[in-house]
Amino acid sequence: xxxxxxxxxxxxxxxxxxxxxxxxxxxxxxxxxxxxxxxxxxxxxxxxxxxxxxxxxxxxxxxxxxxxxxxxxxxxxxxxxxxxxxxxxxxxxxxxxxxxx
Length: 101
Description:
Elements: H1 2-10, H2 12-30, H3 34-60, H4 65-95
Helix pairs in contact: 3-4
């Protein structure tokens, strides 16, 4: 427990920035109109692809079990995001195709 408190006090600036970023991101995303949601999700999909590449590199260099588990969890979540982004983008593109008679 003492190690956790030492970590929190040593990194309080970084933790503050992360928490502030979460609240700011939530506020920005909640005010996005429905029309722009799908194109923005496609952009987030591309960003998650970069996260997957970085995650693979980091998991390859993991030295402890905790690092490996955390990296694998991040890889799994980023992969779900990419797959979901492709599904949503495909549905969006289907809406613009002409109907067959």
